[in-house]
Amino acid sequence: MDKRFYIGVFAALFAAFAFSLNFIVPFIIGDYSTFDFALFRHVVSALVGLCILFSEKCGVMHHLTLRNWLSATWLAFIGYVGYFLTVTGGAIFSGPVIAPAFLGLVPIVLAIVGNQRQGSLPWRYLLMPLTLVLIGLVLVNGTAFTAEGLKSFRSLWIGIPLALAAVALWVWFAIANQAAIVTRPEMPAGVWSALILVGGGILMLALYPVGAALDLFQLPKLGFGWDAAGSLYLWGTSLALLATVCGVWAWNVASRSLPVALTAQLIVAETAFGVIGGLVVHGRWPTGIECAGVAVLIAGVVLSIRVFHERQVRSGKALSQ
């Protein structure tokens, strides 16, 4: 039991690290748009997903039912395509600071909803970890609503609802994905991840004509050649493999091993990793408030792991008596 618990914890933290790499995307793709990057990344991820399915075709064909394909594609729409569109829209209309600040609500909302559904822990045990996570998020995002942070928005009336929609979509995805995994105990995590990856790639290709009509893609203008798009291809492939393929797989492993209330608090490490990555990209040292925020976030994560582990140990002892 302990081994499965710690594997789940490590997988959730790795997923948080992988997802945090999304924060550096705007700084590494040059003149190409985030939509160009998303299209290439999801297509590469879909190709990897197909390779996984075909490499294990002898053992996975009975999993490739219409119901599983439809469920995985729907989850890809909620958690990847829909989430990406709302996050990007939120950043465009409300600026690059406020939208991520609202996304900090995800672990709080997910932990509350997850524990309400599963009853993993009495609420008094969750109070302190959630409080630490909330304080950490406030400190890390403390500059979001200052006068300087509010200068970069186009329309808060559009941006904030889109950011809140992104929060709702990710919470919905996390709950629905774990429910789907629970109802498929015989399906390997890699196969389920591959189905989601392929679904996401198909959806991005289907949406390309719409995005091109709205002039959201720069690829047709800047060119598809290696000289022009080499950086996009290299970074897109790298992050497709690490942030998307490995991130989705690790999240599914964590979802199979841990209750939602714990994975929700572990995913808050994405914020800490994102802050560190952003500081590296910008080449500056963290402020005192940012250091305090990351430290409190880490404390909340560590306390969450300890609380859930102690509860699990007690439950195991009770069952053995």
UniProtKB/TrEMBL annotation:
Keywords: Membrane, Transmembrane, Transmembrane helix. The chain crosses the membrane at residues 7-29, 35-54, 66-85, 91-113, 125-144, 156-177, 189-212, 232-251, 258-281, 287-308. InterPro entries: EmrE-like. It comes from the Bacteria. This is DMT family transporter. It comes from Rhizobium herbae.
